[in-house]
Amino acid sequence: MDRIRRVRLSSVVLPLDQPISDAKVLTGRQRPMTEIVFLFASVDTADDQHGIGFSYSKRAGGPAQYAHAKEVAANLIGEDPSDIAKIYDKLLWAGASVGRSGVATQAIAAIDIALWDLKAKRAELPLAKLLGAHRDSVRAYNTSGGFLHAPIEEVKERASKSLAAGIGGIKIKVGQPDTSIDLARVQAVREHLGPDVPLMVDANQQWDRPTALRFGRVLEQFDPVWIEEPLDAYDAAGHAQLAAALDTPIATGEMLSSVGEHVRLIDARAADIIQPDAPRIGGITPFLKLATLADHNGLQLAPHFAMEIHLHLAAAYPREPWVEHFEWLNPLFNERLETVDGRMLVPDRPGLGFTTSEQCARWTVDRCEFR
Length: 371
Fold this sequence. Notes:
Blueprint: E1 4-20, H1 23-26, E2 33-45, E3 50-58, H2 62-72, H3 84-94, H4 103-122, H5 127-131, E4 137-142, H6 152-164, E5 169-173, H7 179-193, E6 199-202, H8 209-219, E7 227-228, H9 236-245, E8 250-252, H10 259-267, E9 273-274, H11 278-281, H12 284-296, E10 300-301, H13 307-315, E11 322-325, E12 339-340, E13 343-345, H14 358-362, E14 364-370
Helix pairs in contact: 2-4, 3-4, 6-7, 8-9, 10-12
């Protein structure tokens, strides 16, 4: 029986090439995003097996995730790394006074993902195969080229490059205070792509209920695959009303930080497409619980961000899912994911299939170790 002998944590700050703006910036609720802060966890065993995982935070929360992980990580030492569910509960109880969502579970997520990476490596299988894959590739769409800070001509140019690179769909941001600007951008991109390329729109929670209903009806002429986060992430009743009123599917869930919060969406029939984020809801262990519930309720799946993790989880989902393509994290890793004919291929490397790069080490601002 193998045992965990060492846990290493590191805080990594990834600078973005340019400040990023979505509707939350244009409505004055947030500042442009200039960096992403990552919590990396590395787990080593007595048999010299090794797993890595990460969680992340945009704009705020990164140092808090790292601080919480430092407080609970020593509880792993001596545990059997295969007992992932047992370890997860142990870490939850170690930090029980701060709850089971938000920063607390996002800190645990990095460790949980590292344990799943380790387990798949010990089995010499890609994580998707360990979980029980339904497919060897997943439909992929690009988001990083469609942000609101980019002029429309740049959005169209980047969309063309994404399609040429084998990505199958394009998502653009909407949700500006002036919906006529949103309309013009959606129309321009749809005309540029033609009628057959999958197009998604994302309002980043910036509409009220009347605006979402009116503009959602206008958007239907452009045949979007989905309208994402039209309302506040916690407005399950409002999303349910939209889902019932519009022909276009409603997608939401990325901002929620627990399985329980997603259950509210499911129970309210507030989404056609659920968008959980494994690092945000606490890791792969809770993600798998949520995926079972989502499939039972007939929902489509489109996990948010972190394609390096979510490709494997989407490949194991029974219903044909989508995975979100972001190239932002590429400098952190030595390996790359491949897209062909609109789909992202599950790598044949064991585990998640990634090793951290020298650049990732250079961007590390703090680290600690437990033995």
